[in-house]
Every structure is written in C-alpha cells, then in structure tokens.
Amino acid sequence: MINVILHEAEFFARHGFYPEEQLLGSKFLVDLSVGFTPASELNSDDLTNTINYEKLYAMVCLQMQQPRKLIETLAQAIIDEIKKQYPYIETIQVTIKKLNPPLKGKVAYSAVNIAYNKP
Known about the structure:
Layout: E1 2-13, H1 19-24, E2 26-36, H2 53-64, H3 71-85, E3 91-99, E4 109-117
Antiparallel strand pairs: 1-2, 2-3, 3-4
Helix pairs in contact: 2-3
C-alpha cells in the first residue's frame, strides 16, 4: 500500500461552535494521509498511477472554506469528498488542529482525528 500525505497544510477559516469564532476566524492545520494499492507499476513515473496531492489539497481547501460548528463535521466532510473522488482508496486519516483555541488558558491547539478504513 502507498500513502500520499499532506502535513500541516495551513488555512485561515471560520469554523467554531460560537458565533464569535465564525466571525473572527482562526488558523487551522490539516494533516491528511490517504492509502491505496496502485493498479499498475509505479516504474512508469506516471501521475495517473497514484493520488495527485494537488487534487487532495484542493478538496481540503474547498471544505475549509465552508464554515462549520464542529471540526469533527469538517473532518468527516473531507473524508466523504475523498471517498467520492477516489472510490478505490483503502484508508484515510485526517487530523485538524485549531491553533490557539479560545480557552481560558494557553493551549497551542485543539484537534480531532478521524480515520477511515475501507471494509
């Protein structure tokens, strides 16, 4: 199996449960790992034999632009979009970190991690 990975893709977005969070926005980091078994040899050096990480980034970017109350919902939407575009994907792991969450003390980030394994 091959994993294509995006690590700490940074976005400014307006996700958050409270109206102030959606109004002010925040920085987020997204880690994404997508696993699949290639249909043919990778020796051909052909992009069609793998998952294009540029397209993965575009899918994440599109989902990040749609404000949601919960980052859990956002992570699941990313997984659902990837599964729709690449039905042969075997595993997906998404971690979304909200930097400097609005808490009473100093916290570097809050995060969720959702994993998908094809049955």
